[in-house]
Automatic annotation (TrEMBL):
HAMAP family reported in the protein's UniProt record: Arg_tRNA_synth
Known catalytic reactions: tRNA(Arg) + L-arginine + ATP = L-arginyl-tRNA(Arg) + AMP + diphosphate
GO CC terms: cytoplasm
EC number: 6.1.1.19
Lineage: Bacteria, Bacillati, Bacillota, Clostridia, Eubacteriales
Name assigned to this protein: Arginine--tRNA ligase
Main enzyme class: ligase
Pfam assignment, any one: Arg_tRNA_synt_N
Length: 588
């Protein structure tokens, strides 16, 4: 469906042309003065110069042409030359009725289906998930859903950090703790056990212990480096331990991501890219793209238009080791081979910007991806505590994601404990859904690139622009619906009517913006734009609900119009929440 702005612009184009003015001046926008009008056209101001006429004369001409139009309830020309527009009741009603029939509520994808890889999550195997990974998971999940809704084929990949020094550290720590294990017997020739020699809780404790030890004990660090190198060279014992680490860690990560309602199509990682590295680097050298510098192999990425100096991308260290960039480049080799995507979107902390500039430029230069490949890095800001510093636990450590979620569920549970009419079990489950909404909405309602303050009290509040407030709105609508049905009404037979009062019209005006807002959220990879929209709709619903007797309305046709409007409001809100990765409970 065309957006309302497009339809109105079409109307204005006709009028401008009929008055003898060029159509290019007919552009309509949503009003920035909603107290004066709903939409506006400022084209007469620019046209005035071209036609050497006073702008208000042009605005007057056009407004007079539009006088009889069904589309508008009111067309006003105001000095010095604005055209103020208010939508006609029938037009609005028909537009909403069409939206209600459409499974995408009026959004239609103009472009052709693209294959898009979204690289997000980015957890590091064997290390606990912390709040730093939360943003990647939450924003990435939403981006993935938005891309899918837009009609693209989307592949979400968690891209685990599973090939670094942490593996060597764990192997050596395990050797110190359990030297009797067969993995450490040099003469062992048999098969390695299928069962992992540790549980997830042990693993969670082993890594931090090993990491701390390595900082104090250079000999231990040296061993960890050696073990990492052995693993990377295919040593069977190290590989066997690595497989155990991966199995135990992945199972735990899956559980954590499940708790966040975040799902991936691919569970690949840096390790999957390793086989591609030797040929990739050799080709870069043969093609003259990469060269030697102080024993390392590097690719220059500086471009003429750069305003600052960018260091080259190191693809191999002087000791022969691969780096983070090498893994990302080799991952691109694999992704091109397996999926030949049309676009890539990466989510990571914005401090990784240089890394991604290096990787994208090198990949294009080396022909790993096409010259004009569509590659986006979405760098997100830091989640800070109320003190403005990166969020920490009370004891100053890095907050584990699991505890953060537990805290938020508890806060929601306690807030809703007054006048609770549901069973304990339902209350706990509801608190989980609402808590997660509080967390995700608190994050997504900010522009991703900005730092934001994690404030449990504010995020879990049932008032203001928060997840709980939005969910509460949806639940309220659901309950009106249920009551209507319980009293014998048939919501599915209701159809939208023309607005009866100002607050009903306001709700309608907010809803019709959906396709335009979605397009903009999609184009800019900006979930926060959906949040702004949701809040506007929820707020407009609040006004409507306050001003209108819905179920008590005695005029049956009017009542049916209300119910149909509420149905669409609920559907649009639930659709947007789903695009944010947020579920809604039945009751709250
Ligand atoms: N594992 C990385 C980290 O914890 C994030 C990975 C981001 N994705 C990528 N393809 N480099 O910082």
């Amino acid at each position: 469906m065309k957006t309302v702005v497009e339809l109105l612009t079409d109307e204005l184009k006709k009028a401008f042309a009929e008055c003898g003015y060029d159509e290019q001046y007919a552009k309509v926008t949503v009003s920035n003065r909603p107290d004066l009008c709903e939409y506006q056209c400022n084209g007469a101001m620019a046209a005035a110069k071209a036609y050497k006429k006073a702008p208000f004369m042009i605005a007057d001409d056009v407004a007079a042409k539009l006088a009889g139009s069904e589309v508008f309830e009111k067309v006003e020309s105001v000095k010095p030359g604005f055209i103020n527009l208010s939508l006609g009741g029938e037009f609005l009603k028909n537009y909403l009725a069409d939206m209600a029939k459409d499974d995408k509520y009026g959004y239609s994808n103009a472009g052709k289906e693209k294959t898009v890889i979204v690289d997000y999550g980015g957890a590091n195997a064997a290390k606990p998930l912390h709040v730093g990974h939360l943003r990647s998971a939450v924003i990435g999940e939403s981006i993935k859903r938005i891309q899918r809704f837009a009609g693209n084929k989307v592949i979400g990949d968690v891209h685990l950090g599973d090939w670094g020094l942490q593996m060597g550290l764990i192997i050596e720590e395990l050797r110190d703790r359990k030297p009797e294990l067969v993995y450490f017997d040099e003469n062992y020739k048999g098969e390695y056990p299928k069962e992992a020699p540790f549980t997830i809780s042990e693993l969670e404790e082993i890594y931090p212990a090993a990491s701390a030890k390595s900082k104090e004990d250079p000999a231990f660090m040296e061993r960890a480096h050696l073990a990492t190198a052995k693993l990377q060279n295919g040593d069977p014992a190290c590989t066997a331990i690595w497989n155990h680490i991966m199995a135990v860690s992945k199972a735990d990560l899956k559980k954590n991501y499940d708790n966040l309602d975040v799902t991936f199509d691919l569970w690949k990682g840096e390790s999957d890219a390793q086989p591609y590295i030797p040929d990739m680097i050799q080709k870069m050298i043969d093609d003259g793209i990469a060269h030697e510098s102080q024993g390392a192999i590097v690719v220059d990425i500086q471009e003429e238009t750069d305003t600052k100096e960018l260091p080259p991308c190191i693809v191999r260290k002087s000791d022969g080791a691969a780096l983070y960039a090498t893994s990302d480049l080799a991952t691109l080799v694999e992704r091109e081979k397996l999926y030949s995507p049309d676009a890539y979107i990466y989510l990571a902390d914005k401090r990784q910007e240089l890394h991604f500039t290096q990787v994208f430029r090198t990949a294009k230069k080396a022909g790993i991806v096409p010259q004009d490949a569509d590659m986006t890095f979405l760098g997100f800001g830091t989640m800070n505590g109320k003190d403005g510093k990166p969020f920490k636990t009370r004891s100053g450590g890095v907050m584990r994601l699991q505890y953060l979620i537990e805290d938020i569920d508890k806060a929601v549970y306690e807030k809703s404990s007054e006048n609770r009419s549901m069973s304990e079990e339902e209350a706990k489950n509801t608190a989980k859904i609402v808590g997660l909404a509080a967390l995700k909405y608190g994050d997504l309602s900010n522009q991703a690139s900005k730092d934001y303050v994690f404030d449990i009290d504010r995020f879990t509040s049932f008032e203001g622009n928060t997840g709980p407030y939005i969910l509460y709105t949806v639940v309220r609508i659901k309950s009106i619906f249920n009551k209507y049905a319980e009293n014998g009404g048939r919501p599915e037979e209701c159809s939208i009517d023309t607005a009866k009062n100002a607050s009903e019209k306001k709700l309608m005006l907010s809803l019709v913006k959906f396709n335009e807002v979605f397009e903009s959220a999609y184009k800019d990879n900006a979930p926060h734009k959906l949040c702004q929209f949701i809040y506007e709709v929820a707020d407009a619903f609040g006004g409507f609900y306050h001003d209108t007797m819905i179920l008590a309305e005695t005029d049956e046709k009017k009542k049916q119009g209300y119910i149909a409007l509420l149905g669409l409001t609920r559907n649009v809100l639930e659709c947007c929440l789903d695009l944010l990765g947020i579920r809604t409970p039945e009751r709250m």
